[in-house]
Amino acid sequence: MSIIQDMFSGSPFGPLVEHTKKVHECVEVVRPLMEALAHENYPELHKLQDKVSKLEYEADLLKQEIRSRLPRRFFLPVDKSELDSFLRNQDKIADRVEDLAVILTIRDTKIHPELIDDFFDFVDQIFQVTGSLLTAAVELNNLAEVAFGGAEARAVIELIDKLGEEEWKADRMARRLSKKLYSLEGRMDPISVIFHEKILLALGSIANEAENAGDMLRMMIVK
Fold it and tell me: What is the dihedral of CA 84, 86, 89, 91, to 10 degrees?
């Protein structure tokens, strides 16, 4: 292979898209995890935790592959440090899903019946956030072809704006859910209150990391 071919082979953007998809596979396990918890199916929770752990490991392997595809001679339309930051922020989403799965398996917690619907509404909203990131990130190959500019870049910025709006909605839902949780503390044992709060925070952190990844993608486009 010639030096020129070598410089332009092994683009990291294809693997970045695959990493995005793998991270979203982790997020797709969140609802089954919460359904198993709501139905007090604790053996299923442990099986799903194993699934999340496997997916998170596969995402790590992709992360390592991507980093190996950033040789010094490769020409990129964005700084390598920005790509690495985006990759790291995305990786944290999978990490937060794994954190949630661990929390759910530490203790056989029973979700208070009056909170179940609110928790699932919150889960659906988190999926809106991560789905917006997925839709934006899968355009990385197209963005690279146009040097992160033009109509393609503007379309991705609009998707990131939507992501920010969906994360804002998730924050509001989290606050309402937290207030409702503490309004019930007289009817719940203290440890259950603590674990409900841990679950709430773990879910919220997934949306927060997705917003951070979106912000990093924005920086790559508007720099």
Answer: -70
